[in-house]
Amino acid sequence: MYTGIPISAWVFQLGSMLCENGEHRLRGFAESVMQGPRTVAEQVANVLREAIASGTIRAGTPLRQDELAEQFGFSRMPIRDALRQLEAEGIVSIHPTKGAQVARMDGAEISEIYALRELLESEALRLSVPSLSGAKFDEAEQVLDQIDAERNVGRWEALNRAFHLALYDACGNHQLLGLIEAHHNAADRYVRILLSNLDYRSRSQTEHRELLAACRRRDGDRAISILRKHLREGSETLVSAIREDGLSRKS
Description:
By secondary structure, this protein is mainly alpha-helical.
């Protein structure tokens, strides 16, 4: 039986991080983000995704629509849509009778996500490298410098994603980029573990700079080879850690 942080506790914890007054609940945060162009469901999904990826909401935690609707201050419909979006990303599992819960961390899932990332991102890189501008290369390098300087673990995955997407920017296929973005979302909490718990950031950064250098030379074959190795070794490291070192958040 799950014994992690109850809903009431993580609502207060997340509210404390997002609001100046820790007594505010998620309702206040939900109102504050309504300024953006995203739908309500997307906003709710973003908050839940961040809380799950950061470990504030742990694997196996039930996500009850009524309780979430009350905490966010919205109706059940956008909550339901947000949970379905997170289910499509592999972050939430929904049972016909038991309802939704945070998906458990699983070695097989990691392997599947990274295998798909390898296929999708290799193709995007192949299409993008010949057309990438010098400005885009400089942008990617600046992101790597930010990763080196960043001390906030919560920012590492976002910067890691920004680096990769910068290199795929010129692929000319928006559908492909959308699929890549979805699989980055699914891999988010795993990437955070990889970069923080496993002291992997230095190794990852070395591979990132090798990848960028190959792209600058317009050596697409070499760049794809580096990318594939980067993703495969990341996947293998995570699977090994979850199976051997107890990083799984199963109860």
